[in-house]
């Protein structure tokens, strides 16, 4: 026991050394580490040591045990004591940051916010902590969907870093604000902000990895902005720059040189996460453009990298990346005629969402949408309607307007195929009228809305009207290389001309539709085109060509039929009846065989 005159350092350093030894043992001996730290209080230490020890105990208990109440008690004491000690910034603000994180974990958001506000208010002389706490409170508002407050805080951060001379972190604040403005669809504010960011990023001279990571952030925002707008062709130069940028980053070595400005001590994302993100936006582009084999290739690469990263890193963003990748590849599989695989991947998304309530909240609508698309592909129309309706019910229309328009477009196609839902159909079509007040700025979705109108007019026998709508779709899809919409419009126009007896014009539409569908590859359009080619050649007396087309049609029919039977026989097929509550996992019963009609599929 130290005497009153003895310096406290010797006993304190000994206990601290033991605690650190136990914490870093393999495996860690957390109980012994906690004992050593608790022993510090036996010595009635001075306030600085007392506060720091409370912070260390709170941190160890929070990160390594489930005893959150005790962790919270220590962190609250650390925060309270450290506020009374001058020049004690690190302990004070780390305690505030960690305590607010713990409050959020316990759903005590209303305790976290005032704590962070107070810490922000008193940290203006400590640039690193002031910026970090601003980011933390902005993130908290974002998770609560209060994007306006989050944007205000990021704006405060941008101005503060300009004053303290940190252009690098100013760019991070501005880019983060740009990301939220994109989520809010405030495009008028996004454009000048991104222009300013571009200038700051180009002019900043510093650590090459930090500079390139800023450039990746900037380009990711530009690419996703174009993709949200459905501009698949216009985005190509940006996407190419982004891919070159990530290649540059992968060749650079992480220098451990610390920035001279403490406000610059931030990283947007680790290098490995950025690689996955670039794969992800490439998959999004390939999916929208209809390069489905390319989408498959990049998905495989990204998922392989994710598996490696998840072994060492429990960051929740990796699960988000994985879910978004799976969502895109599932849509590809449904188009390429691999429904059974798509269904198993939908089940995988269910499992990932079941592990994380936040992930499920953010992706429930997409999950029901994917199940709706699967139901459409196996001709379970009632289930498709129920899934799309569930997707609309759980979607957040403020931040997911494009998703809403996508769901409504697909629900309209269900009503058209059912043929007896006129009133509901007209109500839906009024809400996605491409000629008047279309609800979203997406070029791709507006082109799809014209296609749906054309499809309805075709079924109603109003062929001239159908041709007008489909020509609009073609004009829009050609302008932005939307290959799938182009193929679908061409084959439907070919069908109209065939019905009208204009065989030459029909052939001029169906042949390129078939070529494009083979390139994508889109099994349904190939099936449809080969059936039309068979009938066209028969009508024109081209027996050999008709026989060849019939053979192709037979092959596609067989492939689709086998896939249909395989998918409907999977136990996961029962997912189609889940429309409410958390995602079901491990509740599937194997079925004896398909329970759906194949007639309209073929």
From TrEMBL:
Xref: PANTHER family: MAU2 CHROMATID COHESION FACTOR HOMOLOG
Keywords associated with the record: Cell cycle, Cell division, Chromosome partition, Mitosis, Nucleus, Repeat, TPR repeat
Chain intervals with Polar residues compositional bias: 588-602
Cellular component annotations (GO), alphabetically ordered: chromatin; nucleoplasm
Renumbered residue ranges of the record's region Disordered: 581-602
Protein name per the record: MAU2 chromatid cohesion factor homolog
Major location category of this protein: nucleus
Family affiliation: Belongs to the SCC4/mau-2 family.
Record's subcellular location: Nucleus, Nucleoplasm
Name of the encoding gene: MAU2
InterPro entries named among the record's database cross-references: MAU2, TPR-like_helical_dom_sf
One Pfam family named in its UniProt record: Cohesin_load
Keyword Cell cycle: yes
Keyword Transmembrane: no
Species whose genome carries this gene: Salmo trutta
Superkingdom per UniProt: Eukaryota
Any GO BP annotation: mitotic sister chromatid cohesion
